[in-house]
Design goal:
The chain has 108 residues and is α+β, with helices and mostly antiparallel strands. 32% of the residues lie in helices and 9% in strands. It has 3 helices and 4 strands. The strands form 2 sheets. The chain has a two-stranded antiparallel sheet. The chain has a two-stranded parallel ribbon with strand order 3-4. The N and C termini lie far apart (39 Å).
Length: 108
């Protein structure tokens, strides 16, 4: 649990979650998440460049902890959050493909 900021729980430690919280505080609606795969590859995080040695990659527990923090945040969100990665392991927000969003935005 993070500290309470202006009556809302601030869930920091990860820049993406902090940015999500900030966007929600500012009233962005909807908030689209892009690039949140959070799927381990061979039991390790897959967000590292190929040039990095394997021992720099963290265990899959890192993603599990990130998902837990997003799940803690989800009920606190005051605005709609949409995950734009249908293959994402992050399951606490509605999921749409980017194509679905574009179709919706272009038709309105």
């Amino acid at each position: 649990m993070g500290p309470v900021v202006a009556g809302r729980r601030h869930t920091g430690r990860k820049p993406g979650l902090s940015a999500l919280n900030f966007a929600d505080i500012l009233g962005a609606d909807p908030i689209y998440l892009v690039g949140y795969d959070l799927q381990p590859i061979h039991g390790k995080t897959g967000n590292w460049h190929r040039e990095y040695p394997d021992n720099w990659k963290m265990g899959a527990w890192v993603y599990a902890k990130m998902i837990e923090r997003f799940r803690d945040f989800a009920p606190c969100a005051r605005h709609r959050v949409v995950n734009l990665n249908p293959r994402s392991a992050l399951d606490c927000f509605p999921v749409l493909s980017p194509e679905e969003v574009w179709k919706t935005q272009l038709s309105s």
